[in-house]
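User: I'm curious whether this sequence folds into something compact or stays loose and floppy. Could you predict its structure so I can see for myself?
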Amino acid sequence: MLESAEFWVAVAFIAFVAGAIKPGRKAILEALDNRAVKIGAEIDEVTRLREEAQAELAENLRKQRETAEETEDILEHAKEEADLLCKHTVSDLEDALERRERQALNHITQAEAEATKEIRDHAVDIAVTATLRILEENLDEERGNDLIEAAIEELPKKLH
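Assistant: Here's the prediction. I'll summarize afterward.
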C-alpha cells in the first residue's frame, strides 16, 4: 500500500485539499457570513416593506370606507335636496296655475261684461233707430212737439 501509486496520489490529493481548504476556509466562511448578514438585512428590509405595505393598505382601506361613507352622505343629501326642490317646484307650479286660472276667469268675466255692454249698446241703438222710424212714420209734427216738451219737463226729475 505504501508502494502503490494510487495510495500516494490519494494522500497527495488529501494533503492538497487540506492545504487548500485551510487558507480558503476563512475566506469561504467570511463570504458565507457576509452573505448570511446580507440575506438577513434583506429579510429585515422585506419585512419592514411588508409592514409598511400592510399599513398603507389599511390606511387606503380606511380612506376608501370614509370616502364611500362621504359619498353615501352626499348622495343622501342630494336626494333630499332634489325632493325639496321637486316639492318646491310643484308648489310653485300649482301657484302659477291657480294664478293663471284666476287671470283667465277675470278675463272671461271682463269679456262677458264687455260683450253684455256691447249687446246692450247695440240693442239700444237698434231700439232708438226703430223708435225713430216708428215716430217718423206715425207721429205728426204737433204730437211730436208735445212729446218733446213733456220730455224736457221731466228731464230735471230724472237727472236727480
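Summary: Residues 5-138 form the longest helix (134 residues). The mean pLDDT is 88.
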